[in-house]
Structures are given as structure tokens and as C-alpha cells.
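Handoff note, outgoing to incoming analyst
You'll be picking up this chain. Sequence as last confirmed:
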Amino acid sequence: MFTPRRALFLGAAAIATTASRKVWAQAAPSGPHTLPALPYAANANEAAIDTMTMEIHHQRHHGAQVAALNNALRDQAEFAALPLDELLQNLSRVPQAIRTAVRNNAGGHANHSMFWEIMGGQGGTPSGEVAEAINRDLGGFDQFRTNFNAAGMGVFGSGWAFVTVTNSGQLAIAQRPGQDNPIMDGLRVLMGNDVWEHAYYLRYQNRRADYLNAWWNVLNWNKINERYAAARAGTLRI
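Most recent structure output, in case you need it:
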């Protein structure tokens, strides 16, 4: 229901979004990591995610993580030179004073970069090698969808539900808290859904289950098949 209170909230959010874009553009420290552009218009995922959420999530949340990661690495030439996946694999070597900042923001950068890539589609059911792998490893699409949504609902507080993939193509469902990423544990991510409240709260409020169900309507299975092929070829990075 579009109430006066909600209208006031959305109006304030729009003003804050405009202001924060200007501040972020002025203040974001330069560095080795950059915010990737969305590969589609911000309204492309309206079947599941509203335009304002996409803009705030991409520009403010992901953008702030990229800026914070560059700031943390500002005087760390060795680690600033590492590709993002190798940085996540070597967190134990990162100086303790910046390790938490690097973990949170590098993880968030990897998670969100993957997240934007696999959406912008029409949903439906998978085909090709991904469909075969889902049937083999995850009990078929219907069972996979049920179990994946349960993983998303089972994240306490903020975190992610993922499908991990090995170099041999084997799939598994995984959860991670905060902005942790399976790369930190030597795995690769085929796909994943963000269950932080900022990913869905403008439209769904506390109805995370509704968001999880709607999200399947905007998946791009062609991109997910490309990621699967890259994983098997050993070229999938994040």
C-alpha cells in the first residue's frame, strides 16, 4: 500500500541518493579497484527489484565498498597489485590492522560484481550444461530452487546464499555471513543472492521470502551458463 509515510520515506531516500552520489564521486579514493557499471538499465530487474533499490544498492553500497577497499590498500602496494580473487585467497597475509576492512570490502566487491552479472534476464528455467549439473548435483530445478530459497531464509541477519562450483563442474549450495565469499575458502561462485536488507527492503520490507521467490524472475541463465563454462575452464575469477 502506498501510504503518506511510505511516500515520505521514498522521497527522503531519493534526496539522499542524489546527495550521496555527489559526495561519493568527490570522496571516493582512487585505486586498483573500480565499481563496474551495471550491464543493463537500473529498471531492468523490476520484476523482482525496484529501480531505486538497484541504484542505491549499486552506487551507494557497492560503490562505498570499492572506495573503502581502495582506501584500505592505499599504502599496501603488494596487496593492491593482486587481482580481487587472489586478494581474497590471501587474507591471512594482509596486515592485521586492515584485514577486517579488506575482508569486508573485497568480499562485498566480489559478491556484488557477480550479483549484477547474473541478473537482467527473464528468469525461467535453466538450460544447457547448468541444467544438467543442477539435475545431477542439486536434485533438479524445483528441488534446487526450494533448497536455495531455504538457504537464503536461513541466513541470520545479513549475508548471502551461493551456489559454489568446482573446476570439475560440481555444484553445491552454501551460505556465508556478512560479505564473506566462498573464494576465501578456495571455492568459486556460480551464482548467489544478496539477503542483506538493503537488497530488498524498499519493496518487500521484512518479507524476505517474497524477495527470494521473485528473484528467480530476473536471472540471466545465459550468463550463468557462461560462468559455469569459465569455472570448468579454470578462468572464472569472481
